[in-house]
Amino acid sequence: MSKKQVESYIPIALKVIKECDKVDDKRLGVGIEDNNKNTIKVIKKEVNGYLASYGPAIIQSGLIPAVVFYEGKDEKKIVNDLILKVIGEKGKDYTRLLEYACKNEAEAKENIMDAIIALKLALRTFKIEEK
């Protein structure tokens, strides 16, 4: 983990979350009106959970198996899409996080872990859906 890298990813993560109502037609959250008639974004509780468990999955299973696991599940794929958007320039030649991870495993692991941390920190600035 690189603190500087995580810090540089946080503004990108905030922007990606704010601008993203859908990633590949999967809803990240919902917009609701507050008391002042302002629309605020509420992040799905599941998305928060998927992101929270991604790092431990990489540590326990390895990078490629964890990325495959999240790539294979429709509702979880949104997390891979968010990570790839945060990584940005480093993953710009790839349309899927799995491609990026397979081609550059050593570099990708650090970048993906840093992006996950940045996304988890950025999510804390949004309201999380309560069920």
UniProtKB/TrEMBL annotation:
Could you tell me which InterPro entries the record lists for this protein? AF1862-like_dom_sf
**Protein name per UniProt:** CRISPR-associated protein Cmr5
- SUPFAM superfamilies per UniProt: AF1862-like
Q: From which organism does this entry originate?
A: Methanococcus voltae
Superkingdom field: Archaea
